[in-house]
Amino acid sequence: MGSPPTSGSTQTRGSASPGKKIALTIYAIIAVIAIATATFFSFSSSSQAGDLRAGLTMIAPAGAGGGWDSFVREQQQAMRLSGVARNAQVVNIPGAGGTIGLARFSTMNGEASTIMATGSAMTGGIELNDSPVGFDDVTLLARMAEDYDVVIAPVDAPYDDIPGLLEAWKDDPSGFRWTGGSAGSLDHQVVARLAQEADIDGKDITYIPKSGGGEAIQTLLSDTTDVASTGYNEVSDQVEAGRVKALGLTAPEPLDGVDVEPMVDQGVDVVMGNWRGMLAAPGITDEEKTELLAMLEETRNSEEWKDALQRNSWTDAWMTGEDFEDFLAEDQKNTAELLEELGL
Amino acid sequence: MLDSLMSLFGGFAEAVTPMNLLWVFVGCLLGTAVGVLPGLGSSMAVALLLPMTFALDPAGALILMSGVYFGGLFGDSTMGILAGTPGQPSAIATSIEGHRMAKAGRAPQALAAAAIGAFIGGIVSAVVVVFFAPALADFATNFGPAEYTALALFAFVATSSVVADSVLKGLSALVLGVGISLVGIDSVSGTERMTFGLPGLFDGISLVTVTVAILALGEVFHIASRIRRTEHLTQTPETGRPFLSRSEFRESMPAWLRGTAIGLPFGVIPVGGADVPTFLSYGLEKRLDRNRRDPQFGRGAIRGIAGPEAAGNATTAMAIGALLALGLPISATAAIMLAALRQFGLQPGPLLFDRAPELVWALLASFFIAMIVLLILNLPLASVWASLMKIPAPHLYAGIAVFCGLGVYATSSSVFDLALLLVIAVLGLVLRRYGVPLAPLMIGMVLGPLAETNFRDALLSSGGSYATFFSSPLSIILYIVLAAALVYTMIGRLRGRRVGDIGGASASADAEAEHAEDQKVS
C-alpha cells in the first residue's frame, strides 16, 4: 500500500482469472510461511544466551528524541562502530518516568539479550508513581554516565552566584518563580535541595514545570519566571551565547571546558548528578551478566563512546557491583526525602 | 540581508551535488510513502531514518531528513484526502473538504491544491527563516503564558465555525476532546487525573493515538458498518483534467496566501506544531466562504484544502528555522531533528549560525530543493495517488486498519495502546453514527492543554493575580479582536439564522446523506 504500483496491482488482482487466483493464493501461502519461519528463527536466535553480541536489544524507556533515547542510541552507535555488537536494536517503551518500561522488563525473565536504560528519572518515577516494580525486580548492570544541572537566570538578574540567589529567595520565598523539568524531576529536586540550604519550606516553592531547557529559557526571557534549574547540556549554548547567565553547577568539581563554578565551591553543599546506567533482565545467569558487563565496559572504553560523552556533555561515571547497589539505595533514599519535601 | 543571500547561494552549492539530490529525492519519496500510512507520520519517518543518517555526512543526512519530513507531511494529507483517514493531527483540517472533493471525483485536483499549497507555505516560510530568524527569536520572547492563554481562547473562537453548525453536538464533542486531553498525571501538582490507576495512562493519551483511532480507524469501522448498504464507495468517476484549471487556481490562490500568513508566526511559538494553524486557516476559509454568493464548503471546497495545507507547511518550515535559531524544538519532529544534529556534535541555538554556517545554509537550501522535488514528484503523481480510490473499499480499508495498528504499536510498542486505539475507535464510530462532528473533538484535544497549562502558568507566575491576563498589549489586542469577532457573530445570528453551508463539520453531512439513503431503502 505504500506505493502506487502495488496498489494498482491489488486492483487488477481483484478482477483476475480463476487460474491466476490460485497461483496468487499459493504464492501468498508460501510468502506467509517464509516470513513466519524467518521471524521465528530470528527470535529464537536472538534469545540464545551464547550469542549476546549478535542480537542485542536495548530498551529506551522513553519516547524517540528524549534523554534516554539518545543515551541508548549513542551506545548502539558506539557498539556498532567499535565492533562490540554490530547488530544492536533499539526499542522505545515510553511512559510514566520509565516505569512502564521497567514493568515490562521485569517480566522478561531470563532474557539476557535485552538490556534497558535507567537513571535518575527512573528513581524518581518509581517513587512518584508508587510503582509496584522497582530495581529489585531486575538485574543491575552498571552506571555509565552522569551529567549535571545548572541554575540559570536572566542576564539582568541582581545576583551572580548561588549564595546571592538564596538571599534573594529568602526575602520572598513564594513570590520567587522557579522553572525546570517536570514535577518531581531532578531539576525540581535540585530546587528542593536549595530550599533546604536556604531554610525555605518546601510548600513555599513556586515551580512552573516545562518540558525542557529550551522552553525553560523562553519563560526566563519572557519574564514569566525568575530562575531555572535545568540540565547543563541542554542550555550550554544559550549560556555561552549570553542569552542567560549561569549561577552554579550541581557537579562535585569543576568540569573541563565549562566556565561555571560548582555550588559546593560557592559554599552551598548541593551535589546532584543526573546519572544514566543499564539494567539487565531478571533471572539471567552469572555468566550472562558477566558477558553483558564486559560488553558495556568495552563500549565504555571505546573511542566512539568517549566522543559521545563529549558531544552530550556527559561525564564518565562507571560503577558496577556492590558500589552501584549502594549508590542506588542512597539515591532512592535521597529522592524519596526530596519528593516528600516537595509534597509529591 | 545580502550576506544571507550570499550564504544561501553557498548553501545551494553545498546541497546541489548529484548525491545530495538523490538523497533529497529518496527522502521525499520515502517520507510520502510512510506519511500515507495512517499513524506513521513525518515524525515517525524521521525517527526510523535516524540510525541511517549515521552513515551519511552531516549535510547529506540533514538533506535526507528534510526530504522525509516534508514528504511525510504531504503523505499525511494525501491519505486524508483520498480515504478520509488522516494519520496526523495536522492533516485533519485538510481532509475535511479534501475527502469530500475526492468523493465527488475531484481527487487529483484536491491533491494538486494540497501540493501547491504545501509548496507555497513551505517556500515562503523558508525565505522568512533565511532572512528574519533572529528577529523572530526576539518576537517569540514577547509571548508569556498570559499571551498564550489569550491566543488559545482566540483559537477556540476562531475555529468555532466547525462547531457552530450543530451547537449542542459540536460543543459536546469539544468537551469530550478537552476531557481526553486531561487524562494523565498533572504536570504541576503531580496528581493523577482520570487514569484509573493504569500506568499506561500516566502520560496521557497521545494526540496521534486519538487521531488515528477517531479519524482513521473510526472511519474504517464506519465504512465497514455500511458496506452492504451503500454502493458508491468504490469507483468514483474522475472528472475534469488531472490538474487545476485556471479558475481553480485563481480560486485557491488567496487561500494559499492566507494560510501561509496564518502558519508563519506559529512556527516560532510553542503551541504544539502545525495543528492549531491548520484549524485556524480552515475556520477562516469557511467563514469567508459563507459570505460568498456560491458557498462551496460542505461540497468539497478547494479553499478548504489550499488554506490549511499552506498553513501547516508554513508552520513546519518555520519550526525548523526556530529550532536552528533558538534551539527550541517546537514539534516532535523538530525534537528528533535536534537529536540528529547532536549526532554531528551540533547544538542548535543562537550559536549554530556562527559555528557551522555551511551546514545551516545547506539545510536551508535543501528546504527549497525538497519543496521543489515534492512539487515535481506530486503534481504528476496526484492522479496516480488518486487511483488508490479505485481499490475496492474492503481491500483499501482493511489495509488502512492494519497500518493504524502498526503505526500506534510502532511508536509505543505497547499492547495497552492498541486496546486504547480500539476503544477510542469504537467511540469514533458511535459519534459518527449519531452525526456528532469530529473536528471539534480534535480541536479540544489540541487547544485544551494549551489553554490549561498557560492559564495555570500565568497564575503561578503572577502569584495568583488575575490581572496578569490583561497586563500586556499583546494579550489586550487579542482579547479585543476576540470580543469584536464575538459581537460580529452575534449580530449575524440576531439578523436571522442565515443558511450556512451545506454540510456540517466532518461527519454531519455524511450522517444526513445516510439518513436520506436509509429512508430510500426502507
Automatic annotation (TrEMBL), chain B:
Listed InterPro entries: DUF112_TM
TM spans (from-to): 21-40, 46-70, 110-136, 148-164, 171-189, 201-221, 255-274, 317-338, 359-377, 397-427, 434-451, 463-488
Annotated protein name in UniProt: Tripartite tricarboxylate transporter permease
Domain DUF112: 21-443
Keywords assigned by UniProt, alphabetized: Membrane, Transmembrane, Transmembrane helix
Annotated organism of origin: Brevibacterium gallinarum
Coiled coil among keywords: no
